[in-house]
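One such shown below:
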Amino acid sequence: ERRDEDWVAAEVVAVWSGDAVPSPLLCGFLLARASRVGVLQDMSSGFGFSGGPGRCFPVWEQFRECMSMATQVQACRDLRSDYFECLHHKKEFQQLQDQARKAAADKSSSGTPH
């Protein structure tokens, strides 16, 4: 007999590794557990700072819709990446840093005094 934590851990690993789509059983279990410990009370409302939808909410909606219909997690990988980029801007910041480094390297190699 498997304990709840055993099958949940196995299924979560499969989902995050891209090998499976979350089952309704897993979603129900996690939702029940989250509401029991009060996690759902602190989750984001979807509203932005000015009261309207948050800046990333439309991207989240697209990702959520894709995940609800996907048979493979890989089908929604690009939307997941877009959502995280909207939240954290890591790719944008990396691109700006690369441009600044290139400009500094070009300036120093051209012999222009600082």
Q: What stands out?
A: The helical segments are 4-16, 24-37, 57-69, 77-88, 90-109.
